[in-house]
């Protein structure tokens, strides 16, 4: 159980200005600072370094030196395992402090942040700590006068660029397998969610990770993110963020050293409810959480609700009731179900999507407004829009806010056609009591993840990744380790 008093104590602590974490030291950057505005009330929380391209080059050099001298890359997997377990212990020790710091920075409701940020990050470090001394190469079935070995080798320097919605969770999805595999890392957090990741780097040092193996460089994506992606000395880029940035990263890779790019991008995930869903009331509740938690700023959010026509009106009414019952407010108040939108720019973008949808003929069933403006924070009502056409802007583009587009359908084939009529293919769900239909839908809906009679469950054991323009390469599970290994064949004449 989270304790409100403890949260209030932590939230009142001043947050010192943060530096860059390079070569195991806090270092000043050469590009000035960025103010960190708290989405809770719009106040200046602290500053982070607005690093320059030169600062980024320094961090990459530190990661390269650490990799090449083998201080981590040549440590036995069992040794890396110990350090990663210690890091998981430290994350657990600091779980609430890390979560509160993150919430002050990015606005996620604390109940969710505690589980999805610190809780998930600790679990991810443990998962890869446990995995790494059980994953090894192969002996190929060749002629008996040949010994052919397939080695798994760390790739070298990994550049990780992450977004603001779940910085610790998504950061850990990249950092943990990359470190477990023996690589060095340069991490570029989002401008509006750097603080908990800077603290994570400090904890990694305390856990015994050698200097230079994990560096964090804050600042503008267009400056330091670009410098990281253009570097000739970075071997792999692991990215989560928007499609627009993902496209740039591929260009940067092409213009530099053809580094491998793993992109986890956006979604417009279809949540498909058939009239024979086992429990429509539960489906309405879970669907509401599946779009509105963290103010809809969830990559797999079920932002397109496809409802069979015969239950459309009743289901929308039940879901709207749930949406209206959510308490939106201070994300550090345990009474809030939904916290703040990450930034003013994001909030304005969300409101603009609602206005466009209405212009294109959608009707607002509930929500659609900014609220609690007097707090100075960025809060928006959960919003349900009906009368949305499958090709309308709000049905095609990712809002990444608390906005649900509802589209009716008649048949299973029509539901599949609408679901797949999207450039995205990240996640989705189907609600039905018909086992055969559930399996047909699992096969035919083109997404990387599909839920049946639930929305949003997952753990470290299963991959998360998209198809189509939702990206390539998966985070989580043993499969994610492949991204951070090179294969080397040794063909030995006996
Ligand atoms: P974004 O692309 O604007 O920013 C992501 C990161 O890229 C930030 O750290 C940013 O500073 C950096 N960046 C920006 N411009 C850059 C450039 N020119 N070169 C290098 N780096 C640059 O995305 P965002 O707004 O922070 O995040 C929201 C997006 O992330 C949404 O589209 C969401 O769906 C997606 N997302 C996907 C997943 C997934 O697992 N597929 C998970 C969470 C979020």
Q: Judging by the overall fold, what is the CATH architecture of the largest domain?
A: 3-Layer(aba) Sandwich
| Poorly predicted residue ranges | none
Count of alpha/pi helices:
15
Overall pLDDT confidence: 98
What is the name of the CATH superfamily of the largest domain? Aldehyde Dehydrogenase, Chain A, domain 1
Q: What level of helicity do the residues show?
A: 25-40%
Topology at a glance:
Elements lengths: L3 H8 L8 E3 L2 E3 L5 E5 L6 E6 L3 H16 L8 H17 L1 H12 L3 H22 L6 E2 L6 E9 L2 E5 L5 H14 L3 E5 L6 H12 L7 E3 L4 H10 L5 E5 L2 H13 L4 E5 L5 E4 L6 H13 L11 E5 L3 H14 L18 H16 L3 E4 L3 E2 L7 E2 L2 E4 L6 H4 L6 E7 L2 H9 L8 E3 L3 H10 L6 E2 L32 E9 L1
Parallel strand pairs: 7-8, 7-10, 8-9, 10-11, 12-13, 12-19, 13-18, 17-18, 19-20
Antiparallel strand pairs: 1-2, 3-4, 5-6, 6-21, 14-17, 15-16
Helix pairs in contact: 2-8, 3-5, 3-7, 4-5, 4-7, 5-6, 10-11
The protein binds nicotinamide-adenine-dinucleotide (NAD).
InterPro entries: Ald_DH/histidinol_DH, Ald_DH_C, Ald_DH_CS_CYS, Ald_DH_CS_GLU, Ald_DH_N, Aldehyde_DH_dom
Protein name: Aldehyde dehydrogenase
Organism: Hoeflea poritis
